[in-house]
Design brief:
Blueprint (H helix, E strand, L loop, with lengths): L11 E4 L9 H20 L10 H7 L4 H11 L18 H19 L5 H12 L3 E5 L5 H8 L7 E3 L1 H7 L8 H9 L7 E5 L2 H9 L4 E5 L5 H6 L4 E3 L11
Parallel strand pairs: 1-2, 1-4, 2-3, 4-5, 5-6
Helix pairs in contact: 1-4, 2-3, 3-4
């Protein structure tokens, strides 16, 4: 293993955004909860089972494109909605409408509370850059570029494969490996020479499905065992640990 905590064969690092580089995962979880709880209350009345921002978030929406997250969570409750269209208003009870409602809430919350990059992640990415490894951000979020800019870390990455790029290229989201594979290709490396850094179970599965050279699970919520079970080669609570630093 190198001083970066990676096999010596790794030439590129592919980083998820929310929960790995920035603390916006909690913002996303809160926006999903507000969206789904309002929908469930309308549909089922005051006795509805609320969206759990830890368990439901990790199992059904974390790391997925918005529409996939809506389908995944509602499917877990036995609910199917019309697909709708991408320009559905947020108050419309369709897959796209609920997704647009969640996105509007995320943008509002980010504007209200700002975006913070994890200091340990910033130190790690800078160390990766200094070591001469290639660097990409891989995120299902259509707001990825704005979040990177708000956190002040956009210049640390050479390639960005996000929700906008995935839609343009018709790339399926995590747990499919296609977005990570696209990032590795854009950096001029194959999957065996690339490491994936993810906090989502769907991201672990994408790393395993793509046969990447190394998969690092970032455990921010106490799910280390689940990350390993879904494909992590190593699990840390902060990327600085890979540099030999304490979290």
């Amino acid at each position: 293993m190198t001083s970066l905590g990676l096999p010596s064969t790794i030439q590129a690092c592919l980083f998820d955004l929310d929960g790995v580089l920035t603390s916006t995962a909690t913002v996303h979880a809160a926006a999903w909860k507000e969206t789904f709880d309002a929908f469930l209350a309308r549909r089922e009345g005051p006795g509805f089972q609320p969206f759990d921002p830890v368990t439901d978030y990790d199992l059904y929406v974390d790391g997925m494109p918005r529409a996939d997250g809506v389908r995944s969570f509602l499917g877990s409750r036995g609910i199917r909605l019309p697909e709708g269209s991408e320009d559905d208003p947020p108050e419309l009870d369709t897959v796209q409408g609920l997704g647009n409602r969640k996105n509007a809430l995320v943008l509002r919350k980010i504007k209200e509370v700002g975006v913070r990059a994890f200091p340990g992640s910033v130190r790690y990415v800078k160390a990766v850059r200094e070591a001469g490894l290639r660097r990409a951000v891989v995120s299902s979020s259509a707001n990825c570029q704005a979040v990177l800019a708000a956190a002040g870390i956009e210049d640390l990455f050479e390639v960005r494969i996000d929700g906008v790029v995935a839609a343009e290229r018709h790339l399926p989201g995590k747990p499919h490996p296609d977005t990570f594979l696209a990032a590795a290709e854009a950096l001029g490396t194959g999957p065996h020479q690339a490491a994936v850094f993810e906090d989502a179970l769907a991201g672990m599965e994408a790393g395993r499905a793509g046969d990447f050279g190394y998969v690092v699970g970032v455990d921010r919520v106490g799910q280390a065992d689940a990350l390993r079970k879904h494909g992590a080669d190593a699990v840390v609570t902060d990327l600085a640990q890979l540099l030999g630093e304490s979290a």
